[in-house]
Write a structure and sequence with these properties.
72 residues, mainly alpha, 2 helices, 76% helix
Length: 72
Amino acid sequence: MNDSLKTLLVIAFLIVIVWNLGAGLYYLMIDRGQTKRTVNALTRRIVLSVVLILLVVLGIYSGWIRPHGVGG
C-alpha cells in the first residue's frame, strides 16, 4: 500500500470522526435529550477512534507504517 493511500485512509477516518462529533452536538441541541441519537453518534465516534488507533498500531507492528521523528 503506498503512502498516499495510507494518508488518505487516516484522513478519511478523521473526517468521519469529526462528522460524528458534529452530529452528536447537533442532535444534542435539537433533540434535547428526547432520543438516543446523540449517544449513538458519540458511540460511533468512539468506535471509529479505537478502530483507527488499532489500525495504526497494526500497521506499525506489521511494517506497513514506519514511524519517524518530526524532522524525518
